[in-house]
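Need the bound structure for uracil, inputs here:
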Amino acid sequence: MTAENTLFAIAQEVQSCTACNLHKGRTRAVPGEGPANARIMLIGEGPGYHEDRQGRPFVGPSGQFLNDLLAMAGLRRDEVYIANVVKCRPPQNRDPEPDEIATCTKLFLMRQIAAIDPAVIVTLGRFSMGLFLPGERISRIHGQPRLVNGRLIVPMIHPAAALHQPQNRPLLEADFRRLPEILAEAERLHKQASFLSPQADEPPEQLRLF
Ligand code: URA
Ligand code: SF4
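Answer from helper R.:
Posting the output first, comments after.
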């Protein structure tokens, strides 16, 4: 099966999923979108009001801002893959619960990552960061790429947090502006990692880079 077919199949499963409580309040599930061969994948938290209505990720105010941030990095939105930790909107935009995160990521996000095999994963916010860099503090490590299983994970502040707290805005913008440089390094490391073909059950390798 091609990566594109796998992503399509996952999206169909997401639409009819009832594996956790979040399915009860959703209008539409939001599987994610972007090209199957994207080199950069961005992972947010979960759908908000607008995403839930449209079935697409980052289409509300945070999404507008995300488009601007991508432009600052010289990237078009249609060349990155955009997904979320949970695919259904938590009621009143509450935080997703640990069991909802565990269920949804095991069923869908981890399979999306495997299919796309991006060189860089940008995590937006602490729940997304927590999947790859548990126990870290976003305020301390934002913008610093870490090598995890042959991929560079770049933890970033959530765009909504920067909209609510304007003092975070320059930090987030500066982190996005460094993405092209990080991608170039990631491609080099990713090729090396594929060549060495690490086992999936190896403990994550967490090098501090740059
Ligand atoms: N915030 C998120 O984390 N994801 C979206 O898709 C929209 C807003
Ligand atoms: Fe299924 Fe994920 Fe939606 Fe829960 S949040 S119902 S696991 S798609």
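Comments: The mean pLDDT is 93. The longest strand covers residues 151-156.
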